[in-house]
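# nightly structure sweep
# worker-07 picked up a monomer target from the shared queue
# config: single-sequence mode, recycle default, output format = structure tokens
# input follows
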Amino acid sequence: MYRAVYRYARISPRKVRRVADLIRGYYAEDALDILRMQPHRGARMVEKVLKSALANAEDLRAPNIRSLRVVEVRVDEGPRMKRYRPLFRGMATIIKRRFSHIHVVLDY
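# output follows
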């Protein structure tokens, strides 16, 4: 199993999960082609992690890189950055800026 993780990605997990669900179970090369065609910002991030997992497989001398499949794509929630926005009559509302942890696992 070859894996890569992108921690503290500055995007909401909900936005990345819809892209991650597209590539689960595909061959790695096909998954890269699918991600290149997606217009979403999260697709660039998942593509980056997938390329890193492929590079890890190559570095660890995987016997056949072309037959690697995307076994697991997991998008976990990271910490939240809290910001305050002023409202009327001296009140404020909290804006939660969400982070994601993107995990990609490749196997045969």
